[in-house]
Amino acid sequence: MGTYNPSTEAERGQMLAAIGISSIDDLYASVPGSMMVHNLDLPEGMCELEVRAAVTGMAEKNKIFRTILRGAGSYRHFIPAAVRSITSREEFVTAYTPYQAEVSQGILQSIFEYQTMICMLTGMDVSNASVYDGASAAAEAVTMCRDPERVKAYISACSNPQVIQTVQTYCFGSDTELVIIPAKHGRTDKDALGKILGRDAACFYLQQPNYYGQMEDAAAIGEIVHAAGAKFIMGVNPITCAVMRTPFECGADIAVGEGQPLGLNMAFGGPYLGFMACVKSMMRRLPGRIAGQTVDAAGARGFVLTLTAREQHIRREKSSSNICSNQALCAFTAGVYMTSMGEKGMKQAALLCMSKAHYLAGRMQSELGWNLKYEGEFFHEFVTSCPCTEKVLMALEDQGILGGLPIEGGILWCVTEVVTKAELDRAIEIIREVC
Amino acid sequence: MKLIFECGSEGHQLSLMPVCDVPEVTLREERSQTLDLPHVSENDMMRHYTALSKRVHGVNDGFYPLGSCTMKYNPKINEDMASLSGFAAVHPLQPESTVQGCLEVLFKAEKYLCGITGMDAMTLQPAAGAQGEFTGMMLIKAYLHDRNEMHRTKIIIPDSAHGTNPASAAMAGFTVVNVRSGPDGGVDLESLKEAVGPDTAGLMLTNPNTVGIFDKNILEITRIVHEAGGLCYYDGANLNAVAGVVRPGDMGFDIVHLNLHKTFSTPHGGGGPGSGPVGCKEPLRCFLPGPVAVLEAGRYETVMPAKSIGRVKSFNGNFLVVVRALTYILTLGREGIPAASRQAVLNANYMMSLLKGTYDMPYSQFCMHEFVMSLDRLHRETGVSALDIAKGLLDNGMHPPTMYFPNIVHEALLVEPTETESKETIDHAADIFKKLYSIAGTNPEALHDAPLTTPVRRLDEVGAARNPVLRYSK
Amino acid sequence: MNIPEELKYSKTHEWVKMLDETTCEIGITDFAQSELGDLVFINLPKVGDKVKAGDIFCDVESVKAVSDVISPVSGTVFAVNETLIDAPQKLNEDPFGAWIARMEGISSTDELMDAAEYKTFCAAEEA
After folding, report:
1. Could you report the predicted ipTM of this complex, rounded to two decimals?
2. Which residues of C97-126 are buried (b: 16+ CB within 10 A; e: fewer)?
3. For residue range B83-114, what is the model confidence (pLDDT) as tens digits?
4. Could you tell me which chains touch chain B, where touching means 3 or more CB pairs under 8 A?
5. What's domain A81-336's architecture?
């Protein structure tokens, strides 16, 4: 069996003698005999050489696509070598939560830097140190807006279905009614929003760009939401944030989103990164850990976890969120990514994503005769109607290309900065042969 | 040291992005707020993060006896496996035929974790212990809803519980009823009997409990709750004492959550990511979050449980963390898992025996994988608190144990050595603890100012909270 | 331990200053602030809140704890001391000057202690 237990039989004997017992069994004396496990249902342990073969064998059963044209909440972006190098450093990987601030300034400072960069990206005043992912961030944002007199939460039908499902689960927990505002032509129906949003509305959640890739009229929607006295939550793509009107500029009270595009692998869905930022007036409602700047006994600048009285270990059942562990290393990765890319890199990545997606969309219309399902402005995702979805996706798959996601009424395509013009041309050729 | 924003200057950058090879398209309306991200060269950036890494204390740096956190060694093979492109480069929405390896990981992890916990089914979706607790509470809520028993609104929790327990119960819409702990640290049975009734939804408990003691009345406790019509939820934070030795399912629990970043060796990353799988007995399987991986005629598929509570997050949980945990389970296997637990318990009792002549132990019987010391008397006699001793440990190169938890012990220090520490490390650590105790007696002032040798001295937490500065501004 | 003569006191260490027959001012005592340590934030009650004597009507935070402030009287809040939001340290520095809320339509004042009774009460608590 494999083991990381350094003790020898002799050393165990010495320890038992020091305690004054003859066997480790004596230490389990409080456990009723009938409860002791005798036939543990696990395979035999293995040495490292064997484990490597077994697990690598599983990894090799997965197909890695050379070209990926699918997004829908998880995106293949370029990850700089420096990001991989820094984020795999043992010091950062094996550290614990920085409760002992004096020996954790590296972690605390990196959290402070990440919080700053999320504020810069979204334009908001304050950020927390992360939550689990964009979907749970949306759910936590809804909780932040809870008000005894406003008992309903509203969400756009154009949000990622997994976000809607997650918010629904959390709302079932808090006995909050969740109302879905319908879509019209692939964007949130503003008229319906205006009519449906009532005095009982705590908040409205809008995704930007939305699930279909469409750019929403966020500022106008923000005005409608505020006119009803509700809070405006925007769930944003961080790459798009580098170029679009920021949530702050659109009047958002809270900005959340999925931070996976900021240097994290797609990794079959996790670990990802939920970022949360808000206006100053809502600062004390933010869940999770937050790092703050202070001074030490000698007057030197330092960082600590702060505003801790919000959290579960102090407020217990009166805390607004139970979150304890977060996605620290993923947030660290995002901070390193944003530092590597800088303003120029982030804007160039956004430009490449948007331009290449429009190139593909244009060629699909002109060469394949496909229609764009929605006519509005889009960023790097778009939906085409398709007469032969299965054939197209199979043909692409055979050639190492993961096509768009089949959804109701068409295919949701995505292009990121890592896809070359040649790859896009090749995809068109392949599709043209079968469709 | 400087913040990254204070390094470099305009014009310094990395060269990462190519020029656009298609006609450029931009948004009609762009942001007018500036984006003042750092301007650094790759060299300066690497130096900054290298400097930061020297101001961090990880398991790789030294003994980390944090009670309730199980800071065991993080095996390097786990990191290697989690970074295989066969896992890392997989899109979560790929066709199932192209991700059979990923589904196999989920299926096997579920199977083995069920075997260790005595559960019938498991979800790997929750991203951390707290999210697992919320999921578990939601399973109870869905179960009660299904049976029209919504008058059951109370969750019973011992006063010694971790704060996430009552917080999770509240998030699921339950009211919390606290029960007392007895003088032996276990649940006071009389207090429990008074607390149960027709409005009992369930009990949340960890065993061994938060003072490191296995509650010998566990079968009676779960029986009392079941008889009242409630379900029993196991907080798996302390599983490292009993993994492979005792199964929560055999203790009478209906639902469990696990902390892969504690018991199953996945690294803490400075506060996350973790993973909080939730297991349950058969009657609750249909309510689990989905989708879950199943094996049908030699192929892996995903299905949504029939009455699922839905999703608690996107996609498939913290998948790469599950890969690490599975690698660990495959390494240790049938014999290694219980051997690790037994060594963890031995190490804790050994360390306790070295210190009990010096420090006050409120619970004098054998502990499990962790033990609690109380510095209440020391504080009254010398003015030296648990905090002061902890800061003194920092000056001796050791990360302190958990302070001031659980809150039923005054001036608590909760110590958990784990099984991956040698006798030599434990002996050395005990010597440091004893040295500090005598300094407390002879020169308490020295400890009030500690730490003195760390990169910064004690920090003004009051000022940080009164005047929060939560981001850098030029 | 400062215990002004003209005020009334509750067993949970709040002070009451009668402004007239039916209105009063409420705060926490020197004993309370000393026990709580450095306060970093107060979650003030809302104007219009109706409270009963014995209800939790707001809470104060130190770095490591949250403590409930219990209303010593029944009544309706008509003013709150917003200056405490940016300067919670006033509760420590000047507990009898740093009023938290003003209430009207008050009742249930019989249970309150006078300064001498409160002094005895505190001495017993410390023992």
Report:
1. 0.97
2. ebbbbbbeebeeeeebbeeeebeebbeeee
3. 999 999 999 999 999 999 999 999 999 999 99
4. A, C
5. 3-Layer(aba) Sandwich (3.40)
